[in-house]
Amino acid sequence: MEENNREKCRELATRLYELDGEVYKSVGSSLGRTFTGDRERTIRNLSSLMYTKPDGHLLRSEMALISNMARTIKDKDEKSRLMKKYDEIFKEIAALPETFVGVDIADKERMILNHLLKHREKISENDHLVICISRTQGSAGNDIGFGLADDLRINYYDVEIFDQVMRRLEAEKGAVTDAEYFADFNKYGKKKGLNLKKWFREFNRYHGLPKQDAVFFNMSDLICDLARSEDCIIMGRCADAILKNNHIPHISLFITAPFGIRVQHIMDVRNMNMKDAIHFLKKMDKQHKKYYNFYGGENWGKPENYDFCINSASYGIKETEKLIMRLLDEQIR
Amino acid sequence: MTVLKKLLTVLCTVLTVILACPAGVWAAGNSETAATVPIWLCIPFAGLLLCIAVMPLVKGEWWEAHQPIVVIFWILMMVIPFAAVYGAGKMTETVLECVINDYLTFIILLFGLFCVSGNITIEGDFAGSPRVNVGLLALGTFLSSCIGTTGASMLMVRPVIKMNSWRKRKGHIMIFFIFMVSNMGGCLTPIGDPPLLMGFMRGVPFFWSMHLLPVLLFNMVILLFVFYHLDMRSYKHDIADGRKPDISKPGTEFKIEGLHNIIFLVMIVAGVILSGILPSLPAFQDAAGNVRGIHIFGEVTLGFPSVIEILLILLAAFLSFKTTDKKIRVRNHFTWGAIREVAVLFIGIFITMQPALMLLKAVGPNLGITEPYQMFWATGALSSFLDNTPTYLVFLTTAGTLGFTGGIATTLGTVPVKLLSAISCGAVFMGANTYIGNAPNFMVKTLSDENGINMPSFFGYMAWSVCFLVPVFIIDMLVFFL
Q: B425 falls in which pLDDT band (50, 70, 90)?
């Protein structure tokens, strides 16, 4: 019964989305349609709105926007045809049973993921195995990620590879006309000493967006494309948040270790003294947190945002890899 | 819950109406003249405001289909008792005076700007981000003083909607657009907002309004700062929702089509300026010093300067339509809905507010308002609901009769700079307090509604203005008008 309702909501949401497209096309405007998000996400959101609260004001106001636009169609027959469609959908939505009577569910996706409900969305046979690893600096997250990719024989994407891909992407677009490369680009902050000429050039190149945002949007496209096309491990870059927001099945991991051990690791690997290592780690944590919170809309490092959180110091690099493999085993099967 | 909400809405409305008609409260004072205008004649105005505020919430579709009937009903509710109190002749004269000399020029100006701006399309793939939006609002605010708040609003509203079309949360952008472009920006020149044009016609120098630049800049800094942070919050949520603008093309393409319509825009602005200059020229005055014109009824005359203004505007609109490709209007989603709604609602507002304006004219000079901060709030509070032009004139007249010797010499008397600044700022700024405070407010709301943006209800919008504008006005008072 519940599954039927869910299907019905999805069907209605699809019709509503398509109706919006038809209305926008009939109007001929270039100012933007009502549902400007991508098809899949919009339909999911709409069906979620219907499923959780068919009489909710949010859904009503979304629908009102479509009818507002439909009423401005000049061709009377077309207007009447589309308004009739609208009325039909409206009536069907009004007739939906209230599956969660009077309860607003803040984040349905999270609720579905909750294993206590035994409805966890598993990676299906048709989906690719995508593992997103977030990690704190000095927790050997990169080593673990690389090892996992090797064990699983899947592609490994980390920050350097992404920078290369981004550079190629920009070069293909013909947008890179100067000697500036993305390897020099600091994704965490604005570059100092930007002169007016350069500012205008960047303003034009990135459609008025700050460079950080434009790079993020490009990266976000790339991550979604990768996740849809191949099995891979993606390190950092808010990949888990991006894929979650785009409803692409994936497994998210957060790897960390106690601060003291991370400091020791950084001192060994980067040949730093303790003071510099502490300063470096604090700075990196702060930047990671800020970046993730801004673009991901979630709190970086909070356990509830990930499928698994692991203290790599408890097991060491190899053991952590094995542990993750065991945890993934069922999911992979 | 719904009943509770409706009850709350009605209570808020009653409160608003009481606030909207302080003239009714003052009329209970000592003024003998005030007694000649019965307060209950203001009820139809309050009733119409109530309908505008509540009907879209409780019976939206019915309201949309029956607006003209409701407006006619409230007009009759004002006109019939008015005729009973003052006689049919006085009633006809009052209504015609309001329709011919106030409403006609008002709606034709709006119509002209609406038509011409609808024929200009800004094609570009700039993505609406907080900094782009701050830039657009700042540009629009200054543009308002050059081509008027209505002109700037109509010209800028579509590009702003278009650039932000990728976003989900964008109602606040249009609200701040109304605050700044549709209202505040008009304070620097007489072209900016009609009250200042009235001031110019009564002897205030053309460039005197530039004195208000520090106030405008001060407000812009505060509001844009607040806006930036609000917009950044929404922007972050939009990104976190997985929304992203289409930036697949390398670099930004930017072009303006229908650019020749700027000529027609200039024509309209020239018409407005002429309507302010011509009445003072001897050629347009009769022997008694009255403005020559077409006699309509009783003392109602449509002045030749107004005729020239109307003809110029209509000609500009006609030429704009004739010389612009229809495709541009289609891309701009040009419809008559917004102007029709404003035309219908505002004829009702203009006619039914006449008793309130008569009351204001009668009691205004006797209110004991002499300080700049008092002028600022009195002019502003009334401009939020009534037409800001007569409100401005009432308080300018009051200031002129206070007997000051230093300041700006006007035909109504000498008015100190601080007092004139307070009246001007009150009239121009506080039109942003409600949707009906200034005509472009409603136009922007309707255009946003038609293009996929959820705009707040009448009271929802007032909540925004109370939260973000009123505190700024309080700071203005403390800094500039005490």
A: very high
- Secondary structure tally for chain A: helices H, strands E: 13, 5
Q: For residue range B198-216, what is the model confidence (pLDDT) as tens digits?
A: 788 778 888 888 999 999 9
Residue type, A71: R
- How high is the pLDDT of residue A192? 57
B205 touches chain A (CB under 8 A): no
Residue type, B432: A
| B266/chain A closest Cα distance in angstroms | 25
Residue B432 domain-assigned (yes or no): yes
Predicted confidence (pLDDT) per residue in A7-46, tens digit: 888 888 888 888 888 888 888 877 778 887 778 878 888 8
Asked if residue B1 belongs to a domain, the reply is no
Rounded to a whole number, what is the distance in Å from the CA of B112 to chain A's nearest CA?
20
Q: Are the Cβ atoms of B247 and A207 closer than 8 angstroms?
A: yes
Closest Cβ–Cβ partner in B158, B244, B251 for A175: B251
**Residue from the list B126, B335, B450 with its beta carbon closest to the beta carbon of A207:** B126
Report CB contact under 8 Å: B239, A213.
yes
For tokens 């600091």, the residue is A186
Instruction: Give this prediction's pTM.
Output: 0.79
* Cα distances (Å, whole numbers) of residue A26 to A73, B175, B446: 7, 28, 19
Alpha-carbon distance A103 to nearest alpha carbon in chain B (angstroms):
14
Cα–Cα separations (whole angstroms), residue B394 to A151, B47, B303, B378: 84, 24, 21, 11
The ipTM value here is 0.72
Number of domains in chain B: 1
Is there a contact between B191 and B271 (Cβ–Cβ < 8 Å)?
no
- Residue A74 DSSP class: S
Q: State residue B130's pLDDT score.
A: 93
CATH number of the domain at A122-332, please?
A: 3.40.50.300
User: Where does chain A hold its CATH 3.40.50.300 domain(s)?
Assistant: 122-332
Instruction: With CA atoms as reference, report the closest residue to A33 among A4, A75, A62, A2.
Output: A62
Q: E strands along B178-287, which residues? A: 254-257
Q: Which domain holds residue B253?
A: 30-242+249-481
Classify residue B301: in a domain, yes or no.
Answer: yes
Chain B residue numbers touching A208 (CB-CB < 8 A): 126-127, 129, 131-132, 163, 252
